[in-house]
Structure formats: C-alpha cells, structure tokens
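Please fill in the sequence for the structure shown.

STRUCTURE ENCODING:
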C-alpha cells in the first residue's frame, strides 16, 4: 500500500530576503563611514591633506567598517545555508523533510505527540525525543491543519479500539488480576 501525500511545503524565497538585508547592511556601513570620509575629503579639498595622507587617515575607518560588514555578511550566508533547504511533506503515515542545515527528518505518525505554529511562518512537530522546527514556509497554516487533523483522527481510532477491548469479560478479568496482586 502506497503512502498518500496530503501536503508539500512551499518555501519562502529566503535568498531575496538575504540580498535585501546585505544591501541594507552596505548602506548602513557607508552611512557610518560617510562622516569621516566627508571630513577627510574636505581637508583634501582645502589643501590641508595630500592625496596619500587622505588614504592613511581613512584606512583605520575602512578596516573597522569592513570588519563588521564582513561579520554581517558571514551571518547572512550562515542564515541562508541554515534555512534555504527547509521543506516538509505530510503523508498519511509519516511526516518527513529537511530541517536546519539540510538535516533530514522522518517521523512516523505514531511518534508525533503535538504540532504547533511558530514565528517566521514555521511549524513545530513535537515527539517524545524533542521538537523539530521547520521555518519559512508559505503554507505553514495548511501544514499545521493537516497534521493536527491526522493526529486527532489517529487518537479517535485509538479510543474506538480501547472501547472495543473493554468488554465485560475483559473488565472482570482485569479486576480479578488486580485483586490477586493486592
């Protein structure tokens, strides 16, 4: 019997967000550097500085701003690497996909205890061993609804099975066993 796929995640294009953040970071770096650049250029235009002296005065500022912008770029690349491969597929028997840094996850429905939504358009799937988080999904609410309804459906089947097992003969046998233990 083949698995029936209920929903497949649609990722948010994170690369465009990273590009915008990197561009904003560049403008912030230039904004921080601009007052000192303006001062040095004014001194150069007034004739107080030679061309070589102008660069000598600018180098410490360029190094500091370049260092912090480099750290900012590194953080952007790490975020892109961490979140770019996130995906989730919900079938009738399991939930599988890729989480942080391309970590592959396969969760049978019997091991899933809860599901919730989170920030960054995310879905959190809880198991006995921990929580697996999937972020930046366009259809996170649909994924939540499908997993939640499948969990409720599975729990109602377990309740029906327990009610069938609790016949009068089974109840009397269970009472006899507990009395013998006492």
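FILLED IN BY: designer on duty
SEQUENCE:
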């Amino acid at each position: 019997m083949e698995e029936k796929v209920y929903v497949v995640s649609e990722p948010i294009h994170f690369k465009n967000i990273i590009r915008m953040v990197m561009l904003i970071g560049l403008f912030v770096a230039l904004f921080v550097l601009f007052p000192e650049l303006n001062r040095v250029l004014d001194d150069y235009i007034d004739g107080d500085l030679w061309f070589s002296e102008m660069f000598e005065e600018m180098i410490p500022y360029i190094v500091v701003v370049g260092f912090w912008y480099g750290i900012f770029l590194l953080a952007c690349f790490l975020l892109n690497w961490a979140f770019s491969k996130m995906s989730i597929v919900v079938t009738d028997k399991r939930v599988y996909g890729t989480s942080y840094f391309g970590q592959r996850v396969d969760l049978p429905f019997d091991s899933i205890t809860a599901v919730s939504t989170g920030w960054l358009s995310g879905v959190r799937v809880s198991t006995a061993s921990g929580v697996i988080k999937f972020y930046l999904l366009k259809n996170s609410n649909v994924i939540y609804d499908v997993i939640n309804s499948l969990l409720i459906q599975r729990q109602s089947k377990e309740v029906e099975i327990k009610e069938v097992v609790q016949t009068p003969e089974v109840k009397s046998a269970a009472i006899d066993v507990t009395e013998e233990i006492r």
